[in-house]
Amino acid sequence: ISPIADLKDLFKPLGMHIVDKSLSGHCHLKKTCAKDLRVLTKNNGITMGKCPNQLRRDFFTSYVNDPKMRNVDAFLCHHACGLCEAFMAFNKSLIVVASTRFEIGRHEPDRWRSWIENL
């Protein structure tokens, strides 16, 4: 929650607005906990669940016509940065910042390789 808070402070004078919908267990400290999410949850958001391809498809289908999502210029992912996989289908810029460990949520060798190949 601290790295995104720093980025919000950094980008605000540049006229950039960051939508922060945190899945962190500590999001309540900054009042940034994700609410009213569709598809992604605290349980599947970091690992993308047992069937990540289906989860990505469901996520895209659920948000492709969402007015807020259509207004986004880029997606910023950093903890877990692997969550950027959910946003790839939107064909917008991805900003991946490994604020701690790059492999969070991708601990199995096949999932790790797949994440690297997707980038």
Q: Mind explaining what this structure looks like?
A:
There is one protein chain. By secondary structure, the protein is mainly alpha-helical. The chain has one domain (2-118). It is built from 4 helices and 2 strands; from the N terminus they run H-H-H-E-E-H. The two termini are 24 Å apart.
Give the key terms:
119 residues; mainly alpha
What is the helix/strand order? Answer: HHHEEH
Kindly estimate the percentage of residues that lie in beta strands according to DSSP: 5-15%
Distance between the termini: 24 Å
Overall shape: it is globular
Structural class: mainly alpha
Integer tally of domains: 1
What is the makeup of the main sheet?
2 strands, parallel
Helix content: 25-40%
Nearest-integer average pLDDT: 87
Strand order, largest beta sheet: 1-2
Number of strands: 2
Low-confidence runs of at least 5 consecutive residues: none
Count helical runs: 4
Radius of gyration (CA) equals 14 Å
